Amino acid sequence: MRCVRLLIVDDQPLVRSGLRATFDGAADITVAGEAANGVEAIRQVRALRPDVVLMDINMPRMGGLEATREIFNGNGGTGPVTRVLILTMYDQDENVYEALRAGASGFVLKDTPTEQLVGAVRTVAAGEALLSPSVTRRLVEEFARRPVLSASAVPELIGLTDREIDVFRLLVRGYRNEDMARMLLLGESTVKSHVQHLYQKLGVRDRVQVVIYAYERGLIQPGQGWDSLDQTIVSTGKGRPEFMSSAGDRADGAA
Q: What integer best gives the mean pLDDT of the chain?
């Protein structure tokens, strides 16, 4: 079993101690280190190369948002990727959108039950995004306040294969790999390969970034369902797949 290396970042020593105790009981997670602020976090990431950073937002010297951005930008090399899981008091935190834009893979509350917190770290370490329904709503509200961009020219979509377009449609709707494999009549390993190719071509890191990509380019418009996405894809010369029978056909709880 592969062991997940975790870095805990919080300016309160008691919080760090409590979190360390939480993960001491997980056989597949080891706490590689701790940091009290963003500056220390960046230094520890470079030295320890953890798989996941559990990051508080409000800290002295450098906060979690700036540190997340630095860590994400530092993932461009050939070494292992470090993913950031934001630790927050409230899931309606005003920094939700900015943290996801900075490169965070998800959010957990500080009062999250032990089993769920451990599961969240495992999920992010596996390369998945972690968003609660309330955080997803917050994202949609943020995009609804922004001006609608033109979706007439999205050159990255033109470079996708028909199968990658199918995967893109389903990813944005929230389907997991096993769901996509069933719907597309493919093996799950084949779907994973398509997902990775999609990430590379769109210049994104995970499912959260795919959704942000779609919103920021006007492919999805809050309040208009999924029709705007399909209409834009069709305008690139890519057809609407037969399996997408209705705009409301979406998996629940996936990110």
A: 78
Is residue 185 helix, strand or coil?
coil
State the pTM of this model.
0.67
- Strand pairing category for 52-56 and 83-88: parallel
* Side chain identity, residue 249: D
Give dist(CA 68, CA 100) in Å, integer.
Answer: 9
Task: Confirm whether 61 is domain-assigned.
Answer: yes
Residues 128 and 187 placed together within one structural domain of the fold: no
Any domain includes 82? yes
Q: How far apart are CA 154 and CA 71, in angstroms?
A: 28
Q: Which amino acid is at 3?
A: C
pLDDT computed for residue 68 by the predictor = 92
How far is residue 53's CA from residue 70's CA, in Å, rounded to a whole number? 12
For the chain, what is the domain count?
A: 2
Question: Which structural domain, as residue segments, surrounds residue 115?
Answer: 4-142
Residue 215: what residue type? Y
**31 domain-assigned:** yes
The rounded distance, in Å, linking the Cα atoms of 168 and 193 is 13
202: CATH? 1.10.10.10
